[in-house]
Design a protein that fits this description.
Blueprint (H helix, E strand, L loop, with lengths): L12 H16 L4 H14 L2 H20 L3
């Protein structure tokens, strides 16, 4: 996969997880640092194993697509 840095966010499933976490926290609309911390904890607990698996599978598909198209 020439042309991509070895730690490209395009091929890192944690970037997709961060997006899910951020979306949950934004919906909770915290107003203080303490609220933000609590919202992050709650949002983290809301992420399901299925969502994590989907992020991993999406990343695998993207890597395979990149390889198939000579990236």
């Amino acid at each position: 996969m020439e042309g991509y840095p070895p730690y490209s966010p395009d091929f890192n499933p944690i970037e997709l997880i961060w997006k899910i976490l951020k979306d949950h926290v934004e919906k909770m609309n915290p107003k203080t640092i303490d609220e933000l911390e609590e919202c992050i904890r709650r949002a983290w607990d809301m992420i399901t194993q299925e969502q994590i698996d989907n992020c991993i599978n999406h990343t695998r598909r993207m890597i395979n697509l990149c390889i198939e198209t000579n990236g």
